[in-house]
TrEMBL record:
Pfam family, one: Chal_sti_synt_N
Active site (record annotation): 157
Family: Belongs to the thiolase-like superfamily. Chalcone/stilbene synthases family.
This protein's name: Alpha-pyrone synthesis polyketide synthase-like Pks18
Organism the protein comes from: Kolteria novifilia
Ranges in a coiled coil: none
Residue ranges of domain Chalcone/stilbene synthase C-terminal in the record: 234-362
């Protein structure tokens, strides 16, 4: 009999301070716009982002004009703000704090002792350091020194589903008890100047961490999930449609206007075939945790799969209240869904550079 993989102890963590989108656009205007036309376009972009509020490790207060000091006004026309080295130094300082907070919650909720963890899977695309977050988790949580480590790096918003895939394989392969942690500090990569593609990222991204415990279990808990399987599909002809590259002043994300069209064309045929492998169809899926890459991505998924608008209510709610936190965002959505005891099966879905769709079937 195939070993069941229980997904338990979902937990999330946010930076202490947040900012309303109406204030964020004023901040962005001061660093990005050079004329009234750009100011008008930026305001419209922020209004249409679907984001109302988000958190950042860079904020020192939730109110007031001087809420952060990391991104100072440009000193010259070519000034693009802190260097990538400066941004990575801040990542190294801040990322472990969020990760540890969420991980402690997961261990407590799942009733798991640190010494019971056999493997640690970390996920992040917004920062690099070695020793990294994984080493900090081992030290601060007092995990076993021989804990197996896997890092899923630089895969973008769908990184956590790859983390779930790794955890599932470890559990099925040898009964592992896996602590998974996704942490992103996307606000470190704010881009100066007027670059429309970068302005979209500025309007959407935020900081957060999410953790989970995966372990063998014959039956799922009432409010937990069981991982039935995961899937992946590289959409044809899409390699230039989403990118995430390291620049001299942070990481640079681009998002093509073709992404919604590609989703609407290719998602339903592939997903239908994938579900057939589990003896299911689209009509069998009772809940959806779709990563909110932005309002257009959510609309495209709704159209492609002919879903009712309320099917993605949890995704829109997380986007509106917390922004796009990249990889941990799926865990925020799943946590919200399990709190309401949604019916199963559920599909978690995210899109990342490639353009690749990643899915997890949860029951």
């Amino acid at each position: 009999m195939t070993m069941g993989v229980s997904l338990e102890g979902l937990a999330t963590s946010l930076p202490r301070h947040g900012i309303e989108q109406s204030d964020a656009v004023e901040f962005a205007n001061a660093l990005c716009c050079e004329n009234e036309e750009q100011t008008r376009l930026l305001a419209a972009l922020y209004r249409r982002s679907g984001v109302g509020h988000r958190h950042s490790v860079l904020l020192e207060a939730s109110e007031g004009e001087r809420r952060q000091q990391f991104f100072e006004p440009a000193q010259s026309p070519g000034d693009r703000g802190p260097s990538t080295a400066e941004r990575m130094a801040r990542y190294e300082e801040e990322a472990p704090r969020l990760a540890l907070d969420a991980a402690r919650k997961t261990l407590a909720e799942s009733g798991t002792l640190p010494e019971e963890i056999t493997h640690l899977v970390t996920v992040s695309c917004s920062g690099f350091s070695a020793p990294g977050v994984d080493i900090q988790l081992i030290k601060e949580l007092e995990l076993r020194r021989d804990v197996g480590r896997v890092h899923v790096g630089f895969m973008g918003c769908h990184g956590v589903i790859n983390g779930l895939r790794v955890a599932e394989s470890l559990v099925r392969g040898g009964g592992a008890r896996v602590l998974g942690c996704a942490v992103e500090l996307c606000s470190l990569h704010f881009r100066y100047g007027w670059e429309p593609d970068m302005a979209v990222a500025n309007a959407l991204f935020a900081d957060g961490a999410g953790t989970f415990l995966a372990r063998p279990r014959p039956q799922r808990r009432e409010r937990g999930f069981m991982i039935r399987g995961t899937g992946s599909c590289l959409i044809p002809g899409s390699e230039d449609c989403m990118s995430w590259r390291i620049g001299d002043h942070g990481f640079e994300m681009t998002l093509s206007a073709r992404v919604p069209e590609l989703i609407e064309t290719h998602l339903e045929p592939w997903l239908t075939t994938w579900l057939e492998g589990y003896g299911m169809g689209l009509d069998d899926i009772r809940a959806w945790a779709v990563h909110p890459g932005g309002p257009r991505v959510l609309r495209s998924v709704t159209r492609a799969l002919r879903l009712e608008d309320q099917a993605l209510e949890a995704s829109r709610g997380v986007l509106a209240e917390l922004g796009n936190m990249s990889s941990p965002t799926i865990l925020f959505i799943l946590d919200r869904l399990r709190q309401t005891e949604v019916p199963r099966p559920c599909i978690a879905m995210a899109f990342g550079p490639g353009l690749v769709v990643e899915t997890a079937l949860l029951v």
